[in-house]
Structure formats: C-alpha cells, structure tokens
Automatic annotation (TrEMBL):
Belongs to the UDP-glycosyltransferase family. Keywords: Glycosyltransferase, Transferase. Its EC number is 2.4.1.-. It holds the Pfam family UDPGT. SUPFAM superfamilies: UDP-Glycosyltransferase/glycogen phosphorylase. The lineage of its organism: Eukaryota, Viridiplantae, Streptophyta, Embryophyta, Tracheophyta. This is Glycosyltransferase. GO terms for molecular function: UDP-glucosyltransferase activity. PROSITE patterns: UDPGT (PS00375).
C-alpha cells in the first residue's frame, strides 16, 4: 500500500472494557484502511486482546499501532492485574476501577502534547476526553484551498474549533439502533420512556439524532463487518489462540441443520447467579433444541448449578464454552438459528448483521432499551421476560423461570412467528451489509468524516 508522507494521524482511546475496545479497534482498522495513521491507546494488560489483529494489518501495510498508557491501579487502591472491567469481582472493586479510569485524564493530556495527533477519538465513557483537546494541541490542515496550510486548534476561528465538539461516531447503520449509546442515563434521569424519546412518526433515528437533537454525527457501522476473514473473526477481542477448540465446535456446528442451534452469550461483563443458570439449563433442555452456550470464566462452577445428569442427556445436543468464544464467527455459521443475548449494543448489532433472530434477556446498563428496539421496533426478537436490573446481587433477584426460557426460545426458533422474524432480520442483515459497501450510507459517512478531518487535503 502506498503510504502518504504525512498522513492524517488519529488517536483512538477506548474504554477498558471488551464491549468498547472491540468496536474501537474495528473503527481504527477501518480508518487505517482509508490511509489514516491510526494509534490505539490502551493499558499494558489490554493490548494482547487486539495486538495480533493489529500485527496482521501492519503486515498488510496499514499504518496502525498501539500506544501504552499506564493504568494507575495503585493510586486507586486496586490490586495489580485489574485493568479491564471483566476482571472486576465486586462493587467496591468497581468503584476503585472507575477512580483509576478517571485518573487517566492527566496522562492522556501529556500523551496528546507529545504525540500531537490530528484528532482524538475518545470513548463516550471518558467525558473528560474532549476537555483534553481544548488546549489546542493539534494541528489541522485547512480544507478546500489549493495549498497546504495547517493550524493549531487555538489558531482556528471559533466556528472551526467548535465544529470539532461533541462529534458522535456511532457503530450503526441508518436504523434506530443508532442513537442509544448515550441514552440510558439521560433516559433514566428524565424518567422518560423509549416511545417518548424516539417517536416513531416516520422520521428515521438518524434524522432524529441530527435534526431534532442537533448532534453532529457520522454513522459508520456496523463495525464488525470490517472483520472479513476467519482469522480476524476468531481473534476479535481474544488474547488467546483458541484455534483447537474452535475447529472442534465449528465441526460440530457443521454437522447441524441450518438454523437449528441456539447460541447463548451474555457479553463480556455480565454476571449470572447459580440459581438463574440452573433455570436456563432446565429451560433449554425442555425445549429440546440444540445449543451452544458461552459462559464467562467468573461464573460459578457447573457442579454448583448444572442439573444432575445434564451433561449426559445433552451429549451431541449442546456445547458449553467456558471463556471467550469467537462470537462473530459463530453467529455467521448457518447452523445458528437463534441468539439468546443480554442485548449489549455490540451483540445486538452483531445479531442483526448476521441475520439471526434474538431471544432478549437484558441485565443492566442500557440493555433494557436495546431490548425494546429488538422486540418492539425492529421486531426481530422475543423477550424472555426479564423484569429488573441485576448486577452483583446473588439470590435476591427475580428469576426468569425455566418456563419463560423454553417459551421464548421455541417461539423464536420454531413458533408461528419464527419465519416472519427470520425474514425481517434477514432484510436488516442485507441492509447493514449494503451500508458499509462503497456508496452505502456508512461508507459515505466515513468518507465525509475523513474528508472533514482533512484526509485528502494533507
Ligand atoms: O465470549 C465472548 C463474549 C463476548 N464477545 C464479544 O464481546 C462484545 C460484547 O459487547 P456487548 O454485546 O456490547 O456486551 P458487553 O460486553 O456487556 O458491553 C458493555 O458495553 C456495551 C457498549 O457500550 C453496552 O451496550 C453494554 O450494555 C455493556 O454491558 C461483542 O462484540 C461480542 O462479540 C465475544 O466475542 N466472545
């Protein structure tokens, strides 16, 4: 690949959580493919989650690298080794973790002064990210004139300077999924509900975002589609090489009929009680469906909750994967006919992009809102009946019963509506694919954004 002598340099700083690192790394790779020099900023222990992917892109000639920022564990009273949300095991540890994250502001500022990138893409979870750029560290080429003139932010007219504010780059296509990244807290605080915030009166959500909310935004997703080979898909977000296991369960999936296997995964941070896991297992068994079930390593050992004899009875019918599974690869497999999901935004988009009907089981964060989009607006899934937030509190929460589980999964995979749901989600799948192709809306937004940042004027 021809590399420009002075490419546009963008620093990407994702939150220290898989659900944020994964799409940000995809985004950085997407930008690098357009000639941007992309640098991903992260802490030492998080780099292995994406370093192999980055190395492969570098071998292909793309300008993408990684910069390490020290995580202030000690300063926040955290033990060494806790640098990603999925390692948090208690509420107290969670508070300390977020304290440490907030302490990253000053080191970020120093990095910006040293590196002087043209642009910082900071995670929405770092509300102080934009403030770090206000000091005028960056230079920007003035677009639209024949000669190259660069100015620092401080030298720019206010208008130009302000235009950089509150830039939203969303991992979405032009469907309703677009706006939710920052909604939950606002929604909860305002007491409003989904219908009020997103009226369905013929206007698309993108228009709503841009016109009604007046937010500058570029809708460039679904980002997972930039992983277009098996290696990329299976290593996405994964520090270990799970190739042996991968081959095993992919072969198993190959032996199954189209759309016959239920895939179950609750994302990278959720926590499910032993009693609830027991109900899920019984519900799956009752449905008679084949399944592939991903469990985080932090979940209780199977002998604490797995119904007696489950393993024996489910031989050949199901797999339980402990740890990290290559989700995008699995969802793309034609044997997968349903996805039981906690409605994390990445999983939601990945399910839609793969054209897989969903069984929705929101747990926390903004997931109950995402569920409404899946079940009520897009109508590509059926709710399992989750009624309340659950996090950290074993045994005190309202359980979703095994009957609820059986009912929802059979409705999505076999029921009268199953075909209609499948047709609707298939239509969205193709829409999503078209959006990222050349001339598609996401591709056009990406080009417009890079143009605005001066990619072609440098
Ligand atoms: O075994 C696994 C588990 C997860 N994933 C991937 O990890 C990501 C998980 O992201 P998401 O589905 O968004 O769930 P969370 O990890 O729970 O993400 C957090 O961050 C999201 C983005 O802000 C929010 O929407 C969620 O509510 C919040 O819990 C997805 O890309 C999955 O494909 C895997 O590849 N393998």
């Amino acid at each position: 690949m021809d590399s420009k002598p002075n490419p546009l340099r963008i620093l990407f700083f994702p939150h220290l959580a898989h659900g944020h690192m994964i799409p940000t790394v995809d985004m950085a790779r997407l930008f690098a493919r357009q000639g941007v020099k992309a640098t991903i900023l992260s802490t030492q222990l998080n780099v292995p989650f994406f370093s192999k992917t980055i190395e492969r892109d570098r071998e292909l000639g793309f300008e993408i690298d990684v910069l390490v920022i020290k995580f202030p564990s000690m300063e926040a009273g955290l033990p060494e080794g806790i640098e990603v949300i999925s390692s948090i095991t208690s509420q107290e540890m969670g508070f300390k973790f977020f304290k440490a994250v907030s302490l990253l502001q000053q080191p970020l500022q120093r990095i910006l002064e040293d590196c002087r990138p043209d642009c910082l893409v900071a995670d929405g979870m770092f509300p102080w990210g934009y403030g770090c750029c206000k000091e005028g560290w960056g230079t920007k080429a003035v677009p639209g004139i024949p000669d190259k003139i660069t100015m620092t932010r401080r030298q720019q007219p206010t208008e130009l300077r302000e235009s950089g504010a509150n830039v939203e780059i969303t991992n979405t296509t032009e469907k309703p999924w677009v706006t939710r990244r920052q909604q939950p807290t606002e929604l909860r605080e305002s007491g409003a509900n989904v219908e009020i915030t997103f009226p369905r009166t013929g206007t698309t959500y993108v228009e709503h975002y841009r016109k009604t909310l007046g937010r500058k935004s570029w809708h460039i997703g679904p980002l997972s589609l930039c992983n277009n080979n098996t290696e990329d898909k299976s290593q996405r977000g994964n520090a270990n090489d799970a190739s042996i296991d991968r081959v095993k369960f992919l072969r198993w999936l190959d032996s199954k009929k189209h759309n016959s296997v239920l895939y179950i995964c609750f994302g990278s941070v959720s926590w499910i009680s032993a009693a609830q896991l027991n109900e899920i297992a019984k519900g799956i068994e009752e449905s008679g469906l084949d399944f592939l079930w991903v469990l985080r390593k932090t979940n209780k050992d199977e002998d604490e909750w797995l119904p007696k004899g489950f393993d024996e009875r489910m031989k050949g019918k199901g797999w339980i994967i402990r740890g990290w599974a290559p989700q995008v690869l699995i969802l793309d497999h034609e044997a997968i006919g349903g996805f039981m999901t906690h409605c994390g935004w990445n999983s939601t988009l990945e399910g839609i992009t793969a054209g897989v009907p969903m069984v929705t089981w929101p747990l926390s964060n903004e997931q109950f809102i995402n569920e409404k989009f899946i079940t009520d607006i897009l109508r590509v899934g059926v709710g399992v009946g989750a009624q309340e937030w659950s996090r950290w509190m074993e045994g005190k929460k309202l359980l979703v019963t095994k009957e609820n589980v059986t009912k929802a999964i059979t409705e999505v995979m076999l029921g009268e509506e199953a075909n209609n749901i499948r047709n609707r989600v298939s239509a969205l799948k193709w829409m999503a694919k078209r959006a990222v192709e050349e001339c598609g809306s996401s591709h056009s937004d990406l080009m417009a954004l890079l143009d605005g940042l001066g990619l072609n004027s440098i």
